[in-house]
């Protein structure tokens, strides 16, 4: 599947601005979190470390970041393993994954938090903050699909 050319404009459509690397104001409150999707997660690390991501930042495999096909850059996503129940909060900085049966590519650091380094793949659920932002994200994603 080829990357979509309209995805960088999704943030504008949703009305969500970028979240800076150390800004946790966009953190997902578990009480108001809305399930976005379920599926497979994989991780990427050393081969991409230091390269530019789709949002222009340099990929840091030690940061809690992720790649998603459609979520706006800067979106804070809580990723929960359906295998062991562990959770991690990541910031979307890149596009992908482009492998079949994957919904998110996690940084090495996020993979460590979910205890999936050796396996390389886990079934997960993605959650975003509830309320207006989550509703807009879901609505825009449905229009794009």
Brief description of this entry?
This protein is α/β, with parallel strands linked by helices.
CATH architecture grouping = Beta Barrel
Alpha carbon gap, first and last residue? 13 Å
Q: Fill in the CATH topology.
A: Barwin-like endoglucanases
Number of helices: 3
Work out the strand percent. 25-35%
The number of distinct β-strands equals: 6
Number of structural units classed as domains: 1
Q: Which strand order does the major sheet show?
A: 1-5-2-4-3-6
Q: Mean of residue pLDDT?
A: 80
Descriptive terms for the model:
single chain, 17% helix, alpha/beta, Barwin-like endoglucanases
Folded structure, characterized:
The chain is an alpha/beta fold and 145 residues long. It has one domain (28-144): RlpA-like domain (Barwin-like endoglucanases). The chain contains three helices and six strands, in the order αβββββαβα. It has helices spanning 10-14, 108-113, 132-144; strands spanning 34-44, 65-67, 76-81, 87-94, 104-107, 121-128. Strands 1-5-2-4-3-6 form a six-stranded mixed barrel. β3 and β4 form a beta hairpin. It is globular, with a radius of gyration of 14 Å. The model is unreliable at 1-26 (pLDDT under 50).
Helices, strands, pairings?
Layout lengths: L9 H5 L19 E11 L20 E3 L8 E6 L5 E8 L9 E4 H6 L7 E8 L3 H13 L1
Parallel strand pairs: 1-5, 2-4
Antiparallel strand pairs: 1-6, 2-5, 3-4, 3-6
């Amino acid at each position: 599947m080829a990357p979509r050319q309209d995805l960088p404009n999704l943030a504008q459509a949703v009305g969500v601005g970028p979240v800076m690397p150390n800004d946790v104001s966009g953190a997902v409150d578990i009480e108001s979190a809305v399930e976005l999707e379920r599926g497979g997660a994989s991780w990427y690390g050393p081969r991409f470390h230091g390269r530019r991501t789709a949002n222009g930042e340099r990929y840091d495999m030690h940061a809690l970041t992720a790649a998603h096909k459609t979520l706006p850059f800067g979106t804070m996503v809580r990723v929960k393993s359906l295998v062991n129940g562990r959770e991690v909060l990541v910031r979307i900085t890149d596009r992908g994954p482009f492998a079949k049966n994957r919904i998110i590519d996690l940084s090495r650091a996020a993979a460590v938090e979910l205890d999936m380094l050796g396996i390389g793949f886990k079934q997960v659920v993605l959650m975003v903050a509830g309320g207006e932002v989550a509703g807009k994200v879901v609505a825009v994603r449905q229009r794009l699909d």
